[in-house]
Specification:
10 helices, Phosphatidate cytidylyltransferase, single chain, phospholipid metabolism, transmembrane helix, PC_trans, cell membrane, mainly alpha
């Protein structure tokens, strides 16, 4: 398993680096594809609890969110999508209220949250600050895993994710904070102070772990272990990007409204 995870990282990371560095339409298209794959995983998971999401509506909505967002405020796009979904109530009796509700939940949870990666990349220093999303998420995950493995004794959320420990959570916070500080030291052109990097690393790690637990909560309620096997050794898109989905808007809000 570890070998497969390493091989996937060796193949996937250069592609990720290239797409983030290029930005623009390449990043937008990549995010649309990842969003659709993630939506498909989420919708398939809900079938286990008797829900039939309107899949095609979710996929089209993901595309609209990305390609109309630059012309119309993202909130307005989401309102348009929601209104269109409500209108389906009147024209399609195949689906019930629960089906429509989880269709909309998937749109908000996946493509809308992923959208903030693009919005971060489009900021003046976006070439650098977008990396905080991945540093916080992946360093939290890595440090939490190894700290929990060697020192974990006290369960963090046993009913949601039995393997996670309080010690692991603390290790994740420390690893994320140190990694963010090292990043801004190596890349001063990011124009982010060490103090701000510490805040991002600390609180971002808490958000990342909440995102991880939320994904675990969804999986447990849908009676599945993984969302899929899209990424060998890592599971599905949502298994690998669960924390990133929450960290992305958090980092954006910091630089858009607090700096």
């Amino acid at each position: 398993m570890l070998k497969t995870r390493v091989i996937s990282a060796i193949v996937g990371l250069p592609i990720l680096f290239f797409i983030l560095i290029k930005g623009g339409n390449m990043l937008k298209i990549a995010l649309v594809l990842v969003s659709i794959l993630g939506l498909n995983e989420f919708y398939n998971a809900t079938k286990n609890i008797g829900v039939r999401p309107v899949k095609i509506f979710g996929y089209v909505s993901a595309i609209l969110l990305y390609f109309l967002e630059s012309k119309i405020a993202k909130v307005d796009v989401l309102v348009i999508i929601t209104m269109m979904l409500f209108l389906l109530f009147l024209t399609n009796k195949k689906y019930n209220l629960k089906d429509y509700a989880l269709t909309l939940m998937g749109i908000i949870y996946i493509p809308l949250f992923f959208l903030y990666i693009q919005k971060l990349r489009e900021m003046p220093e976006g070439m650098y600050i977008v990396w905080f999303v991945f540093i916080v998420s992946w360093m939290t995950d890595t440090f939490a895993y190894f700290t929990g493995r060697f020192f974990g004794k006290h369960k963090l959320a046993p009913t949601i994710s039995p393997k996670k420990t309080i010690e692991g959570a603390i290790g994740g916070i420390i690893g994320s904070t140190i990694s963010c500080a090292v990043f801004v030291w190596l890349f001063p052109q990011s124009n982010v102070s060490i103090y701000l990097s510490v805040i991002i690393g600390l609180f971002g790690s808490l958000i990342a772990q909440c995102g991880d637990l939320i994904a675990s909560f969804i999986k447990r309620n849908c009676y599945i272990k993984d969302f899929g096997n899209t990424i060998p050794g890592h599971g599905g898109i949502l298994d690998r990007f669960d924390s990133i989905l929450f960290v992305s808007p958090f980092i954006y809000f910091i630089f858009q409204y607090l700096i």
